[in-house]
Amino acid sequence: MKKYVYALALSALVLAACGKKEEAPAAPVASSAPAAPVNTEEKVLNIYNWPDYIPEGMIAAFEKETGIKVNYDTFETNEALHAKLVAGNTGYDIVVPGSTFAKPQIEGGMFQPLDKAKVANLKNLDPAVMAVLTKADPDNKHLVPWAWSFTTVGINKTKVEKALGKTPMPENAWDLVFKSEYTSKLKSCGIAYLDSPTEIIPVALHYIGKDAYSNDPADYKLAADMLAKVRKDVRLFSSTMIDDLAGGKACVAIGWAGDINIASTRAKENGSKDVIEALLPSTGALMFADTMAVTKDAKHPNNAMTFIDFFLRAENGAAMANEMNYNSANLAAKDQIKPEIANNPSTIVSAEYMAKMIQPSSWTNEARESMANAYNAFKKGK
Ligand code: N2P
Q: Is 53 in the pocket of ligand 1 (CB under 6 A)?
């Protein structure tokens, strides 16, 4: 009974946050709720998520407990997932888009609403994060946060300091990847950019003082002009950033803070003495929130709800931070986060830096298209 009270309190909060009237509570709230109908689905669940994004053993534990066999595939960019969803018949039950893409995907009818009565652990979620997600999903009907972090500059400090020689580190870390004065020196140890228009163009826009979520093609042109100046210095457009940083193919990267932290650990495990770290640029970094959603034609929606509820257990939220270096929106997990993780400012961001963070928004479909064109031209060096 108690958990329903919390769930109601939370949904009231969330509804209040987005200024909507509270709707009649769902049926199972009464203490004499009828037994849930038997789940007749085949015991299979198909999940499509980003690589290096799930604590080891989590899927095995879910399979063991529920008898549901999980097929787990990965994609590397929001663009790749989006193209699959647009084509339809993905075969996946749960997909994990960034909230910036989830908005047009919801508007395009690509997801089905959650069956919240089957996800009691939604009560564990941070109402503040859920309020942010209402920008993409107005009544929190479709999206459940998987993890969040930010796109930033990652460096192999040892190699970067060597390559820069007498030039001191810039005050704004974005200079390392966008300013010729630095890129011309760092190209010798390798500059890598994430290979995705919606990771690179927004931070380039931000760097030239424009809105990262501008919908104006004229702004993309300006960002492309800035990028063109450093194109010759960029060695890699990477979808394997952890290995590229840890293995020494790149010494500076535009990457995801969590993956940069994973690279740091991996390099140490491989016996490297180099220090790899995710920086906090003085002007801010690009926050992202990745979210679970159930596809409209999912064959196993009940199993999807079972998985979502399992994922939202406090210990699983804590494992996202402790093992993967990504932030969980699971409030109940907070006191299980290890001190060394909690003290890493590029994993658990301070309130002060949070104020500088570029908050997620979204683009129109047309804007995304012209952003992709600007990016592809840049990449080809045209
Ligand atoms: C991959 C994490 C993906 C974050 N390890 C980018 N949305």
A: yes
Q: What is residue 17's predicted lDDT score, i.e. its pLDDT?
A: 39
Strand partners, 277: 155
Residues 248-286: tens digit of each pLDDT: 999 999 999 999 999 999 999 999 999 999 999 999 999
**How close is the Cα of 307 to the center of ligand 1, in Å?**
20
Q: How far apart are CA 139 and CA 11, in angstroms?
A: 9
Is residue 31 over pLDDT 60? no
Q: Dihedral of the CA atoms 55, 62, 132, 53 (nearest 10)?
A: 30
Higher pLDDT, 6 or 197: 197
Q: In the chain, what are the domains?
A: 44-148+289-349 (3.40.190.10), 150-286+363-380 (3.40.190.10)
Query: Between these two residues, 3 and 271, which has the higher pLDDT value?
Result: 271
- In short, whether 146's Cβ falls inside 6 Å of ligand 1 is no
Top mutation candidate among 48, 53, 100 for ligand 1, by most atoms within 8 Å of CB: 53
CA of 59 to the centre of ligand 1 (A): 18
Query: Is 148 a pocket residue for ligand 1 (Cβ < 6 Å)?
Result: no
Strand-pairing partners, residue 292, are 144
C-alpha angle 239-243-246 in degrees, rounded to nearest 5: 135
Residues, the chain, total? Answer: 382
Instruction: Give the atom of ligand 1 at the shortest distance from the alpha carbon of 147.
Output: 4
Q: Mutation test of ligand 1: which of 199, 259, 320, 328 has the most ligand atoms closer than 8 Å to its C-beta?
A: 259
How far apart CA 47 and CA 74 sit, in angstroms, is 8
What gap in Å lies between CA 367 and CA 363, rounded to an integer?
Answer: 6
Mean pLDDT of the chain: 92
Give the pLDDT confidence of 148-182 residue by residue, as tens digits. Answer: 999 999 999 999 999 999 999 999 999 999 999 99
DSSP, residue by residue, 118-140? G-GGGGGB-HHHHHHHTTTSTTS
Phi, psi of 224 (to 5 degrees): -65, -40
* Measured distance CA(146)–CA(144) in Å, rounded: 6
Crossing angle, helix 78-87 and helix 197-207, to 10 degrees? Answer: 130
